[in-house]
Amino acid sequence: MSERTGWQRIARRIRVPLGFVFAGVFLWLARPTWQSMLGSLALVAPGVWLRAYAAGYVRKNAELTRTGPYAHTRNPLYLGSMMIAFGFALASGSWIILVALAILFAAIYIPTIQSEEIFLRSRFPDFDEYASAVPRLLPRLTPAEFPANANASGGRFSAVQWRHHREYNALMGAGAIYAALAVRLFLDHRR
Question: What is the pLDDT of residue 174?
Answer without folding.
Answer: 94
